[in-house]
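How a chain folds remains the central question behind the approach discussed here. This step matters because it turns folding into a mapping between discrete strings. The sequence in question and its structure tokens are set out directly beneath this paragraph.
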Amino acid sequence: MPHSAAARARASARVGATPQPGVRPRWWAELTLVVLIYAAYSAGRLLARDDGSAAVDHGLAILRVEKALFLNAEHPLNRLFTATPALAVPADFVYASLHYLVTPAVLVWIFRRRSTHYRAARSWLTISTLLGLVGFTLLPTSPPRLLDARHGFVDTMAQYSEYGWWGGEASAPRGLGEMTNQFAAMPSLHVGWALWCGVLLWRHARTPLVRWLGALYPAVITLVVMGTANHYFLDAVAGALVMAVGALLTGPAIGAADRLRAAVAARFGKPPAPSRAPAPIPTPAPEPVTSHTLPSTASPEPSYPSPSPASSSSPAPASPASPASTASPDHAPKGTRIPGRPAPRPRASPIVSGGCETSAGDRFPGRRTRGSTSGTSSADDTPATAR
């Protein structure tokens, strides 16, 4: 039904739903697209730089809102990490590396092992990242580590930078801090991308251990970004909201992209590639109709007169009304049984003039033997003159 087909199409576009089977995208095209998207994202972060005054004001405003709502978990976590190097150093490594390792790894895994879900997963990640870029541009926010020391935050990555490759500019390698936007704290895409990874691993992983690790991953990242003083708790909440909005927009975005592709293909005269339909269910072949040969001894053999001496040298042409043209009422081949009809009774062939021959290939039961010169045939003792 059309309504059911449309409902299935909408359901297949949602994140996590089982889409219709299709052709897996080309890996080099997807790699190029992902690189271009990340380059645009990085360039957008650099273009959204601020002089720092507005970003600090936004950070302090978020901190006041959290204190009013009793959501200020950054201070106790940061004090715990600062006083415990066994927590701070692993947390710094997690913040500086997993963001750039786990996310691409999950994307490649979806591409190779769950290719039917890849397009929705990639579109979800792209749309959410672009929404986060809009947040960086409209609301530059200073992270807690860049606030004045009197606010009680310590930059653990700067404190323990000798253990890693990073310096005092967030997770950037030493000397490359100017290539990052340190005021891109709202929303936290560290938390957002971790949530994306966790949802995909929970839904599509087959091993229970991998599923539970996927579920714990965004929670661990949330604790890490607050304990290292890189994000506020509301930054993490905003990152989760951005991913939720991106998930809602994924279906309409995929539908719009399909319509655009079809319009472009129609404009340039190239039909869009048809979707791969499921194979039809094979139906059993009908049983063949068994042919039955008509019995040749159902009636006495017809008698044929012997040829006259005058006609024995040159046989006469076949009669138009020969039995070959009247073998059956429906002109079916001789010996074929027509389904639904009883087997016809054999009819005696008419007597033709002496020396008559049928066409090549026709044979009649009891046909006389040529070469007899006597006045009688081998099958009939009636004299030829008695005709």
